[in-house]
Design goal:
Layout: H1 8-21, E1 27-31, H2 53-64, E2 73-78, H3 80-83, H4 93-99, E3 103-107, H5 138-148, E4 152-159, H6 170-189, E5 193-200, H7 208-228, E6 237-238, H8 254-268, E7 275-278, H9 289-304, E8 311-316, H10 318-328, H11 335-353, H12 360-364
Parallel strand pairs: 1-2, 1-8, 2-3, 3-4, 4-5, 5-6, 7-8
Length: 382
């Protein structure tokens, strides 16, 4: 149903943005970490890079100027800080991105308070269930971001699984999906195409079937909330978790991940939604999270691309950047090698969107840091 409060002109613009974001073979570079991306890369050596505004700007401008990156990346999600930063030559980051043939987007949630929703139980993240802050001044921030050059937005709400405690609770799901629906409607009123991101984190010891059940509950509630808020689905995209086992649960194989993920989506996501861009989610310390995320995505498209009504793609942060970061390490002399690492991983994910990654030949073209130096990434809101 069209949003009756928004003009036909704005609806057309929203749909045009969503369609561009869903260009064949392309996905998002999630570049919206509040601190240096290296602190969330889950690598012991990378975590030592000084976390300064100058380093963050230098690293991100290096990523955005990677030759040929727009062949694989349609949109770049920025943190609020980055939206107003310039590169070393004084060029605004949004201009660097647009000149490179990509669309700038903006993270608009303000994270969450770990004290959580009153009356909810503590989950595997070590705090109660939560909701994200930022609705009160969202409309003005949307207008400011659009004026600065952003054309789409992101809002992430976090949900936890603990089957013994009944998590995610009905209350937490209702809070999360209502929050996201309000955000999406406000974004669209200000010409920003919203990414709707209800993330069920993989922390915990649950099996993949518990994640599948929770994902279906959350997505069914999410699209009911979006409909109630008159959100124009053709002018929005979804960023869900993949259906995976808990980090401490029994490990599911790639085919099972792909099958249960697409099954959950087919049961809950309307065909009007143009694109689904997966977050990679945290991986076990004995997993290569870059390879795992790419292989999972490729298997989904290999097995189900012909039967899916949506563009099924990626919106990866660490799973695109980890080898890039550990190659760069804050040193100018490593710039070209780091850009090559980013480009190769982005190209691998384009192959995954086409369902063609995973052969010995395709995997052999992409260097990866693998599990070397793996540590738990920084947890919580960002």
């Amino acid at each position: 149903m069209d949003n009756l409060q928004i003009s036909a002109e704005i609806l057309a613009e929203l749909k045009a943005t969503a369609d561009k974001l869903c260009a064949p073979g392309k996905g998002f570079l999630a570049s919206d970490e509040s601190a240096g991306p290296w602190l969330r890369a889950g690598n012991a050596e990378a975590a030592k890079i000084p976390d300064t505004a100058e380093n963050r700007a230098e690293y991100r401008s290096m990523c955005y100027t990677t030759p040929g990156l727009s062949e694989n990346i349609s949109g770049v999600i920025l943190h609020w800080e980055t939206l107003f930063q310039n590169d070393a030559a004084g060029t605004p980051m949004v201009d660097v991105i647009t000149k490179a043939g990509m669309i700038p987007g903006i993270k608009l949630d303000k994270g969450y308070d770990k004290t959580g929703i009153p009356g909810t139980q503590v989950g595997p993240l070590g705090h109660p269930e939560t909701w994200c802050k930022g609705i009160d001044d969202l409309k003005s921030r949307c207008a400011e971001a659009y004026k600065k050059g952003a054309r789409f937005a992101k809002w992430r709400n976090v949900l936890q699984i603990d089957t013994a405690k009944g998590l995610p609770s009905d209350l937490a799901i209702a809070e999360a999906v209502t929050n996201l629906a309000r955000y999406a409607a406000i974004c669209q009123s200000e010409r920003l195409c919203p990414i709707v991101e209800p993330e069920i984190v993989p922390n915990g010891s649950h099996d993949i079937y518990a994640c599948a059940a929770a994902t279906e509950r959350v997505l069914a509630a999410q699209f009911k909330a979006l409909a109630d808020a008159n959100v124009y689905l053709e002018g929005a995209v979804l960023k869900p978790n993949m259906v995976k086992n808990g980090l401490a649960g029994p490990l599911a194989d790639t085919v099972t991940v792909a099958t249960l993920t697409i099954t959950a989506l087919k049961r809950t996501v309307p065909p009007a939604m143009p694109g689904i861009f997966f977050l990679s989610g945290e991986a076990r310390l004995d997993e290569d999270n870059e390879e795992t995320a790419t292989l999972n995505l490729s298997k989904m498209n290999e097995l189900f691309k012909q039967s899916c009504p949506w563009h099924v793609s990626f919106s990866f942060g660490k799973a695109l950047q980890k080898t890039c970061i550990t190659t760069w390490m804050g040193k100018e002399e490593n710039k070209v090698a780091a850009q090559t690492a980013l480009k190769n991983r982005a190209a691998a994910n384009t192959e995954a969107v086409l369902g063609k990654y995973g052969t010995q030949e395709s995997m052999g073209r992409v260097a990866t840091v693998g599990t070397s130096g793996n540590i738990e990434q920084a947890a919580g809101p960002y």
